[in-house]
Write a structure and sequence with these properties.
This protein is mainly alpha-helical. It is built from 15 helices and no strands. The chain is globular and about 70 Å long.
Length: 414
């Protein structure tokens, strides 16, 4: 019997770690997606942001984030502390009992790190092409170490939202909407890119530099999402859990497909063209929409939930442009607007969730992340500034911030 317990422990730990690696691979997906949606003169800097933010998230989550998020006894204010424990769980496992852990604590820590990194990756695309690199990295320290973990403690950490009945299986609100709201606060202080909006209200398209790269990024994100949602089942070593993982992965895939097709059709109806950028964000919106509950819906319901997300993302991108909120990657729409829909859609297929609890969760996370982010962005703006000069923006943040060009052979030499 003891051997069976240890085998199950090893299997669940291994599954957890593999899923964490898949989610870490999503960092590459975000980097490729954003690198393709910005201009050539901004590519190096966006890549520097994406790989650096993951390193920052890893260290900050070690120092304070994990403790804040998972050391709370409930309530609004989480516990404060540093570092992760050094406990060895093997003795508890072999002893058995209902309270015995069934996977390594270190596996849980690694899995949660990559979620924090994914949340911060959302911010990168929205503030692209005009934000100072070190202003962004400074915000990443606070976002991954404090802002994200505090609201995460309210739900996944057993805090007041969890006690209220807020349900968010893999983080449509906790991860995706939170990242989008932090991005929105930054974009409002940052302002749009030069030339994006005309004096008479016209909206000028600023095409990305490499749509094949962006398409690769979506394929990588789509693949990584199986770890994002599948790993959130937290277990695979029994029949019920294995069946749940299979259902989650099927629904995750179908929601992405539904979002892509709905966005494609919506773009065709509105523009008369099949806009690839909308198609890509449609898949992303479908994935975000199903993340709040990929287990309860039927396969057909997953397609419909993702499809609504795909429609929402197209309308949201257009709406933000009319408000002169410039988001080069469409991140606020794909993760924020679709994330809100995903959280509010949970009661449609999950009888244990209540619309009132879901709405309170959305409002609480939005308010906390927006206000905290606005304050942090504001402080950084006062200290070092958050936007490059007009001349530097014209030259490109690659040469100004990094001293390198991603595509040097395309540059005209004088």
């Amino acid at each position: 019997m003891e051997d069976i317990v240890q085998i199950k422990y090893a299997l669940d730990t291994f599954y957890f770690l593999v899923c964490a690696v898949l989610v870490m691979w999503m960092a590459c997906g975000f980097a490729m997606l954003e690198a393709g949606l910005v201009r050539t003169k901004s590519t190096t800097e966006i890549l520097a942001k994406n790989i650096s933010l993951f390193a920052i998230a890893s260290v900050m989550y070690l120092l304070v984030g994990y403790y804040i998020m998972y050391s709370s006894d409930g309530g609004i204010f989480p516990s404060l502390g540093m570092l992760i424990g050094s406990e060895n769980t093997l003795a508890d496992v072999t002893a058995g009992g209902d309270d015995a852990p069934y996977y390594s604590a270190r596996a849980d820590f690694f899995f949660q790190i990559v979620f924090a990194g994914a949340c911060m990756s959302i911010v990168s695309g929205a503030v692209a092409e005009r934000m100072k690199l070190w202003a962004f990295l400074g915000f990443a320290v606070i976002m991954t170490g404090f802002i994200y973990p505090i609201q995460g403690a309210w739900s996944w950490g057993g805090g007041w939202l969890s006690e209220l009945g807020y349900s968010d299986y893999a983080g449509s609100g906790i991860v995706h909407m939170a990242g989008a709201v932090a991005a929105l606060a930054g974009v409002l202080l940052l302002g749009p890119r030069q030339g994006k909006y005309g004096a008479n209200g016209q909206i000028n398209a600023i095409p990305g530099s490499n749509l094949p790269l962006s398409t690769l990024g979506i394929f990588i994100l789509w693949m990584g999402w199986f770890g994002f949602n599948g790993g959130s089942e937290l277990k695979i070593s029994d029949v019920a859990s294995a069946n749940n993982v299979a259902q989650v992965m099927v629904n995750t895939n179908l929601a992405a497909a539904g979002g892509l097709l709905a966005a494609m059709a919506t773009a065709r109806i509105l523009f008369g063209k099949t806009d690839l950028t909308m198609v890509l964000n449609g898949a992303l919106a479908g994935l975000v929409s199903i993340t709040a509950d990929p287990l309860s819906p039927s396969a057909l319901s997953a397609v419909l939930i993702g499809g609504v997300g795909g429609i929402i993302v197209v309308l949201s991108v257009l709406g933000l442009d009319r408000l002169k909120i410039d988001d080069p990657a469409g991140a606020i729409s794909a993760h924020g607007s679709a994330g809100i829909w995903g959280v509010l859609a949970v009661p449609l297929t999950n009888a244990e969730a209540a619309f009132s609890s879901q709405l309170i969760g959305v409002l609480a996370i939005f308010a906390w992340v927006f206000i905290a982010s606005l304050v942090v962005w504001g402080i950084i703006k006062l200290i070092i500034g958050i936007r490059v000069s007009p001349e530097e923006e014209y030259l490109g943040v690659d040469s100004v911030e990094c001293g390198l060009e991603a595509y040097p052979e395309f540059t005209l030499k004088k």
